[in-house]
Each structure stands twice: as C-alpha cells, then as structure tokens.
Amino acid sequence: MGAQYYGADSENGDRIEDPSENALFMMISDLNDSDNTFVVVQPDEDDPVRFASVAVLDEGGFEIVRRDTTRNEHDVTTATSINDIARDLTIWMATGDFPGRPTRQASEF
Q1: Closest CA to 71 of 51, 54, 87
Q2: How far is CA 102 from CA 23, 56, 92, 94, in A?
Q3: CA 93, chain centre distance (Å)
Q4: What is the rounded distance in angstroms from the CA atom of residue 18 to the CA atom of residue 72?
Q5: Residue 9 gets which letter from DSSP?
Q6: In sequence order, what are the beta bridge partners of 62?
Q7: Are 41 and 51 in contact (CB under 8 A)?
Q8: How confident is the model at residue 44 (pLDDT cuts 50, 70, 90)?
Q9: What is the pTM of this model?
Q10: Strand order across the beta sheet in which 62-68 lies
Q11: Stretch 58-79: mean pLDDT, rounded?
Q12: Integer Cα distance of 101 and 103 in angstroms
C-alpha cells in the first residue's frame, strides 16, 4: 500500500485516507445543513500549508475554499454540482508538492 498524502474529514467524524474522486463525491453528497455541514481535505502532515473545504450553504449549493500559504493563494467559490466539486478537488490534490513524493517530469518530444 502506498503512502497516504491527503485525508478527507467530515464534520460527523467520517475520514477517508487519500480520497478518490468517487470518495469525495460520496462525502460531499452526505453533507446536510444540521450535523454534517462540511468536509475538509488536507495533506496528512503536521501543520499542513494547504487545505480545501466544502461547506453547505443555507441558500443551497456549496462554498468551496482552497488555501495554500506557500503560494499565497486563497480562493473562495460556490458551486451546486457535486460532480464538478469532486473533480476539481481531485485535480487540486494532484497539484500539491510533497517532500518524498516522486516528482513529475515533462519531456520534450
């Protein structure tokens, strides 16, 4: 089994290690406006420098926050499509730089 790079935690205590797009979809689908209002996705490390959260909005839909202190990024958006949110978070996770993780190299043809 490979190393775990991210964890997804919901307010109700559910946790998924290194979540897939489908797992994120399920966690976001389970959100409600009473006792499970958010999911946080962040690297599995002490004091992570980046995180994303998805929270239920009172008026419907979701607020998505992405924060990366190393790049001075703080993005807040809203969306209604759980498919789009899960896909975007999966892409966001893949763009993170981690010590010890193999680096991606682009080759010229």
Answers
A1: 51
A2: 24, 35, 17, 12
A3: 6
A4: 24
A5: E
A6: 56, 79
A7: yes
A8: confident
A9: 0.83
A10: 15-17, 6-10, 38-43, 50-56, 62-68, 73-79
A11: 94
A12: 6
**44-48, 54-58, 93-97: which is most confident:** 54-58
Q: Please list the alpha-helical segments (H only) found in the chain.
A: 21-29, 82-94
pLDDT category, 97, cuts 50, 70, 90?
low
Q: How is residue 69 written in tokens?
A: 């202190």
Determine the length of the chain: 109
User: At residue 9, what is the residue type?
Assistant: D
SS3 89: helix
64, 37 in Cβ contact below 8 A?
Answer: no
Contact between residue 30 and residue 24 where contact means Cβ atoms under 8 Å apart? no
Partners of 65 in the beta sheet? 53, 76
3-state SS class at 64? strand
